[in-house]
Amino acid sequence: MKLFTVPQIRAWDAYTIAHEPISSLQLMERASTAFVKWFCERFDDRCTINVVCGMGNNGGDGLVIGRLLLQKCYNVHIFVVKHSAGGSADFEANLARLHPMTTVHWITESTDIPHFAQQSLVIDALLGSGLSRPTQGFLAEVIQKINDSSATIIAVDIASGLLADTPNALSDIIIKPDYTVSFQCPKLAFVQPQSAEYVGEWQVVDIGLSAAYAEATATPYFFSTASFINDFKISNRRKKYAHKGSFGHALLIGGSYGKIGAIVLSSKACLRSGVGLLTVQTPRCGYDILQTSLPEAMALPDWHWMVNTTVPNIDGYSAVGIGPGLGKDPLTLQLLRELLPKLTQPTVFDADALNLLSEHRELLTLLPPNSILTPHPKEFQRLLGRPWQDDFDKLSLLQTFAQQHQVIVCLKGAHTAVALPNGTLYFNSTGNPGMATGGSGDVLTGIITGLLTQGIPPHQAAIFGVYQHGAAGDRAAQKCTQPGLIASDIINEMGW
Ligand SMILES: NC(=O)C1=CN([C@@H]2O[C@H](COP(=O)(O)OP(=O)(O)OC[C@H]3O[C@@H](n4cnc5c(N)ncnc54)[C@H](O)[C@@H]3O)[C@@H](O)[C@H]2O)[C@@H](O)CC1
Ligand SMILES: Nc1ncnc2c1ncn2[C@@H]1O[C@H](COP(=O)(O)OP(=O)(O)O)[C@@H](O)[C@H]1O
Ligand SMILES: [K+]
């Protein structure tokens, strides 16, 4: 699914209105109907609902939502904050339609702001994507009062006061919703850690905007949903006469004294991703551990007891993964230095392989094109050599890094962002905080290396691997709960 900026979404609305054809008023009705459908599936008519509206089209949505819920016999109170002299045309039209049904409570000064009871629901339709300046005055007071209440808050399209495509100032006063129900496509802010408390649990509802516009309009941002991933047509079916040679031979290099578990986890995930053969190079202290815990893997023990030091002969391997548990010993650095120019096969760099690259930045120029780097935010900061100002700055640095080095970077976290060498970004839709546990990233390295080994092109291996890793994590969390989840559970739930 493509992710669009607010100006693009506005153009998308206009295109749909011009080409469907449909009036903007009808589109507002359609959007609000989709919201109400989502709402009624979750909340029954015993609750008290406060719809708090502004005077733009987001407020217009609020008025329609209020009307539709009244028609369904919900207990609805509608408030309008008078923040401008007149409302948008569609707001005014819907205000007129509401009049015979109920009294609208106007909030024109601070004393008009109601108390929102603990058990009630607040539907936030104050401001949407038309936000043009920070909220101030009694509009900000209303937001503050809603936030201070214990009511359940549901934002229409986007939380009032939250900017969709650019960072907010720390001082901005913004609704902190429990849920955001957004129209047609997620906003960029929804996949940024800094906006988390201004988004809550979010869901996109389809309002039938033009498919032709979406198809024809370019964007660097994508959201990897199940249907998007299915388009890669990566099959889990095997041909009857397939043999282990049909699925490639992976080489993983990692582990050091005390961190053999990391490379074992990667190895296990790599095997479960479907490779035909796997060889694992570890220091000698890892030999017994690996052979005992994973008899399916072949071991290539280094002469060194504690760390990896020897450049393996990489001929014959379909793909390489290096980094989990690797350590940063000077001998291991030497290995990496000598290995890099020899690599002709697709390669994944993770963990300490990335840290070594960060500390010896001249090595970055030796990365083969389309290599896959899988840093978590701290590792990415080290690779950059400097921190970012905010999440949007981080994304732009990520795009620039991938373009400059012609590599694929999977910046891990909730909504892992995969940056391609052409600057496009794919935000992942799967995964959960249960995966914030040691070893989860090692599993991802194994999965992506395994996909590369089977001949899947690097950009697909990265996007698909990240998606399937998160999906396996979601299945694991269902079984073990989020706190109970450990990295091995992700491996046990693998399969697609
Ligand atoms: N056809 C469409 O365009 C559709 C739009 N929809 C809704 O329309 C919304 C966007 O509508 P609008 O563009 O009218 O935007 P808003 O509803 O966000 O309101 C913008 C108005 O508020 C004012 N404003 C902006 N920031 C302010 C601030 N901080 N304090 C006080 N006033 C402020 C602006 O000057 C403008 O008059 C979407 O979020 C969505 O909810 C939906 O109805 C779906 C269809
Ligand atoms: N809150 C979260 N939501 C979704 N996925 C998460 C979350 N926290 C961590 N993960 C995933 O778990 C993995 C953690 O990787 P990493 O930090 O490298 O762990 P480790 O180094 O211990 O293996 C990443 O793939 C990341 O996307
Ligand atoms: K809103």
UniProtKB/TrEMBL annotation:
It catalyses: (6R)-NADHX = (6S)-NADHX; (6S)-NADHX + ADP = AMP + phosphate + NADH + H(+); (6S)-NADPHX + ADP = AMP + phosphate + NADPH + H(+); (6R)-NADPHX = (6S)-NADPHX. (6S)-NADPHX binds at residues 57-61, 128-134, 157, 262, 325, 376, 442. The keyword Transmembrane does not apply. K(+) binds at residues 58, 124, 160. It comes from the Bacteria. Pfam families: Carb_kinase, YjeF_N. Its EC number is 4.2.1.136, 5.1.99.6. One of its GO terms (biological process) is nicotinamide nucleotide metabolic process. One of its GO terms (molecular function) is NAD(P)HX epimerase activity. Residues 227-496 form the YjeF C-terminal domain. Binds 1 potassium ion per subunit. Residues 9-215 form the YjeF N-terminal domain. Catalyzes the epimerization of the S- and R-forms of NAD(P)HX, a damaged form of NAD(P)H that is a result of enzymatic or heat-dependent hydration. This is a prerequisite for the S-specific NAD(P)H-hydrate dehydratase to allow the repair of both epimers of NAD(P)HX. In the N-terminal section; belongs to the NnrE/AIBP family. This is Bifunctional NAD(P)H-hydrate repair enzyme.
